[in-house]
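dumping this here so i dont lose it again. seq + smiles for S-adenosylmethionine
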Amino acid sequence: MTVGPVPGQLRAAARGNAGVSALSDVSVAYLSALAGEPVWARTQGGVRLRLPMRRWLGFPDAAHRADEALIRHCDGPSLDIGCGPGRLVADLLGRGVPALGIDTDAIAIAVSRRRGAPALCRDVFDPVPGQGRWRCALLADGNIGIGADPVRLLRRVRELLAPDGVAIVEFASAGVGLQSHRIRLETGGWSGSWFAWAQVGVDAAGVVAERAGLRMLEMEAVGGRHIGLLAHEIHCCASSIASLSIRGNGCSASSRYANSINVRSSP
Ligand SMILES: C[S@@+](CC[C@H](N)C(=O)[O-])C[C@H]1O[C@@H](n2cnc3c(N)ncnc32)[C@H](O)[C@@H]1O
């Protein structure tokens, strides 16, 4: 994958997109990753986690197979929320699926556009084009943590989706539950400011979805990543059954969609 522009050009593009002169912490992180530097997220508890920035920039890593599983579920106009540099939007467009990314970070938007993936510099809680008409909404790469209030975020996703739409959400591992904490981004020689983020493990996914008026249809584990499909509570049974023929999953799935969460696991 070729990202194309060098960081200096990206900075200029980002300022143009955002209308600002200062770079955000997320921009610094993406620029550092583009320059080949490692980037970490650190919790106030002192845990430091290396972020898969190279995958986010579009270079396959050991966990990229789950990306394929994420976008396989996108069978109509898809909104990638917190799209970063737009790798999923680009893949969707390459398969003929209409897609748009939104992200609050100007560098992410600049990279996404440079690779031909349409993206808007937009907060998910602000007005978004196509509200109430999106067939699919993606929250990948831990983006369920956006805003540090997953129930509020999923309620917003519910508003964005068409009545028969599906949210495709990546969750953390079992045992994580629902956690919110303050984190900051770090590189070898720089630390950003603390900000609030959340994590939702597969063990808490159903409860969080339910509080947001969504229902879990399916949970799939792929290469250590966990992908849940969520639909509007009142439409999920009818729309799931209707969508089965479109998705080609077979009629046997209808009762499981209607009655329970389907759990699948791939190596
Ligand atoms: C964990 S990274 C996701 C990486 C991304 N999916 C990718 O492929 O690079 C979180 C992303 O969410 C974006 N973000 C954070 N808050 C947001 C908000 N309120 N609305 C839209 N995007 C947001 C960040 O700018 C960042 O790019």
